[in-house]
Amino acid sequence: SAESGHQLFEFYSEEMYRNMRRLAELECDLFKAVENKEWEVYYQPKVSVDEHRIVGVEALIRWNRNGEAVSPDLFIPLAEKLGLIGHIGQAVMDKAFGFLRLSSMKDRVPIVLSVNLSPYQLMEPDFTQSVIRLTEKHGVNPRRIMFEITESAYMHHFDKAQNAIRQLKELGYTFSLDDFGVGYSSFQYLSRLDFTELKLDKSFVQSLAHNRKNRVIIRSIIGLAKQLGIAIVVEGVETKEQWKTLKTLNCHSYQGYYFSKPLSAEEWINLLAGKFIL
Ligand code: C2E
Ligand code: CA
Ligand code: CA
Ligand code: CA
């Protein structure tokens, strides 16, 4: 009837209103978080089984919004939309480079620090300068800094990104292609930009047990990376079974909860520095 149609409309519009309001509040809090630098950075090891050690560490942003953690998968895209990602990226680099400095004084073997980059950051004209400034501020070696980037529609301005990547590579920084295999143009990225490392997306590992084709795919991507002279890290390894299967597929470097969750800087320095032997 006309009446129930009316009710339906009211139901949806109220629902929509609530969602919009929630989004606006989140956006508002995100601005405040930028002003107050409410970020924390956690660190997850990349391990090499051959070398029996940690070979790298990935910096992952954490935002505690009034006592509740918000997933970066939620607020990073929002920050990109609101033009806040540059500020956030700077704050993450500042912390992470400081962490690199501290941990390399404690570690026996120096590790490589990976920082996730939004493609928007790479397009900013002063990005390279700010990386150099922060590197000098913390007195760290560019050869110990890697940037992880993912495929993105925005990166169709390949030449801008290519310029920034080339400049930074000349100074010793390296680049990793993150979430490899889930986008539409992973191979185009691989051929056009200059990567030192490739990270196989965790979705491959998650479907390993019930998708036999995945094993063939993983094995051939590893072979491809080897032929291109690019290191490969498999992410999202959660169980011993997954790790065992991956070993048979020629994987050597891993990241995932099975080895370690992301840790706070304190946890890392206290528990892990120089002691992590597989
Ligand atoms: P990512 O770069 O692909 O990072 C891997 C994500 O998988 C992280 O989630 C990590 O905590 C999680 N992870 C690690 N091991 C496992 C595992 O064994 N199983 C599963 N299921 N997950 C695992 P997180 O920290 O929530 O970050 C999500 C995404 O947010 C990142 O995906 C990255 O794209 C983005 N991100 C995080 N920190 C930053 C940052 O500082 N800057 C930018 N631009 N993006 C960031
Ligand atoms: Ca990453
Ligand atoms: Ca990833
Ligand atoms: Ca991801």
TrEMBL record:
Full protein stretch here: 145 to 422 of 430
Species, as recorded: Cohnella suwonensis
Domain EAL, chain residue ranges per copy: 23-276
Domain of life: Bacteria
Protein name in UniProt: Bifunctional diguanylate cyclase/phosphodiesterase
